[in-house]
Amino acid sequence: MDLGTSQRAETSTGPVHVPGTLEEFDVPRNLLEELGLKILFMAGQMSVRELAGRMRVGFPVANELFQRLRKDQLCDATGMVGNVYQIAISSLGRARALDLLALNQYTGPVPVSLENYIQQVQAQSVHKFEVHPQDLTRAFANLVLDDKTLYQLGTAINSGNSIFLYGPTGTGKTTIAETLSRVFAEQRVWIPFAVEVDGQIITVYDPVIHKKVQENLRCEVDERWVLCQRPAVQVGGELTIEMLDLQFNPVTKFYAGPVQMKANSGVLIVDDFGRQRLRPEELLNRWVVPLDRRIDFLTLSGGKKIEIPFELVVVFATNLNPETLADEAFLRRLQTKIRIDAVSEEQFHEIFRRVCSRLELQYEAEIVGRLIHVLRTRLKQPLRACYPRDIVNQVCWAAKYEGKAPTFEAESMMRAVESYFLPVTTDDGN
To answer: Which fold is adopted by the domain 28-109?
Structure first.
């Protein structure tokens, strides 16, 4: 997918201030000292340069930290490689590190402050993302969509507001939502490894979710941040109300950010909305304020509330009636509602042609026409966008079972239809 040079090359303004001393950090100095000591305890022995790499700080900062720890007799120099000290924790430092690990086992990169995090997320807000018709045409070239739907999607992206995709099952809502997320992924944003709040640590960067990118930067940046594609998080039936708040680990004693925090600056897809483990009204009530004011409130284990940005596009996808899921007040907050319906005969033929081409099968328009007749007259089915792929898959599986190359012909197609669809029953159940 190519969104053009302007979109592809754009990277949000990064955290260009690089702390050169312990005093220049936006988090308390004792946090850096305690973190350095815990990392040294876990490693046993390491160089000052390795310590700098683990903490994502500059070498001068790590060297200053080492000098402070050595002065307090918490570590010792065991030798040098070139002009770089090799260091090891002392017995006094080991006892202190055990006490610290009992309170908090976080040993990752130095966190950023909550204030710093808020400023960066707002600077790279999805509100600043912009697409045009040619961008959407390229992005959705792999799908067969009408101009009206593309227009609605493009308008929704430029709004930076949440999107409600609804319609019958099998019409491509999830695929459209996933393609939308890839549109946003063309831009680069900065994600922190972790955030510090009142001595508590919240991890944010998740390598499973956040796709790190390599880019030649014109200036040095704070390495506590990772340059990534705009994130895309997808949740479905597994979503619970607990996943929308901070996840405190009672063993490690630090937090993981909730799904909406990890999706900040990007997209959160709520697939099969209405079929989650929490009731729809619970989710909607939880997000009334965030969707309206673009701020969210999270709760620390002691009960303290913290405010974080809600700078993301939430895409709801459902095959249920929207009026049964949300009241008028909430639907009003979802500025764009797009119905994804059954496709036309022309679109159905085009989807079939593309599926056959991808699987190296000969496309036969006459056979597809016969299938359309069977769907409408005998099976009473609309033309869903998923049918071409699913039916051709049935043909390929049957050919694999028979030990021969798949061919798309009337007989194999009808066998696939019989396997895929439930028979139509009469009023008496027969």
So the answer is: Arc Repressor Mutant, subunit A (1.10.10)
Nearest-CA neighbor of 51 among 5, 4, 109?
A: 109
3-state secondary structure of 234: strand
The closest of 131, 228, 142, 124 to 178, measured between CA atoms, is: 142
DSSP β-bridge partners for residue 372: none
Alpha helices (H) in 195-287, listed in sequence order: 259-262, 280-286
The per-residue pLDDT string of the chain (430 residues; one tens digit each, 9 = 90 and over) reads 444 434 444 666 778 789 999 999 999 999 999 999 999 999 988 999 999 999 999 999 999 999 999 999 999 999 988 889 999 999 999 999 999 999 999 999 999 999 999 999 999 998 888 889 988 888 899 999 999 999 999 999 988 888 999 999 999 999 999 998 888 888 899 999 999 999 999 999 999 999 999 876 667 889 999 999 999 999 988 888 889 999 999 999 999 999 999 999 999 999 988 887 788 888 888 888 898 899 999 999 888 999 999 999 999 999 888 878 877 777 777 778 899 999 999 999 999 999 999 998 999 999 999 999 999 999 999 999 999 999 999 999 999 999 999 988 899 989 999 999 987 665 555 5
Going from N- to C-terminal start, the domains of the chain cover 28-109, 115-339, 345-420
Report yes or no: 154 and 134 within 8 Å, Cβ to Cβ. Answer: no
On whether the CB atoms of residues 265 and 126 are closer than 8 A, the answer is yes
CA angle, corner 17, sides to 11 and 20, nearest 5? Answer: 145
For residue 293, the one-letter residue type is R
Please tell me the pTM assigned to this model. 0.87
HSE at residue 430, side-chain half, CA atoms within 13 A, is 1
What is the rounded distance in angstroms from the CA atom of residue 41 to the CA atom of residue 93? 8
In Å, how far are 240, 412, 421 from 270, measured between CA atoms? 12, 37, 28
**Which structure tokens are listed for 62?**
């790590």
| Through-space distance between the first and last CA atoms of the chain, rounded to whole angstroms | 49
State the fold for domain 115-339: Rossmann fold (3.40.50)
Question: In angstroms, rounded to a whole number, what is the distance separating the alpha carbons of residues 246 and 195?
Answer: 12
Give the tokens for residue 128: 């600043």
Q: Looking at residue 11, what DSSP letter applies?
A: B
DSSP 293-314: HSEEEEE-TTS-EEEEE--SEE
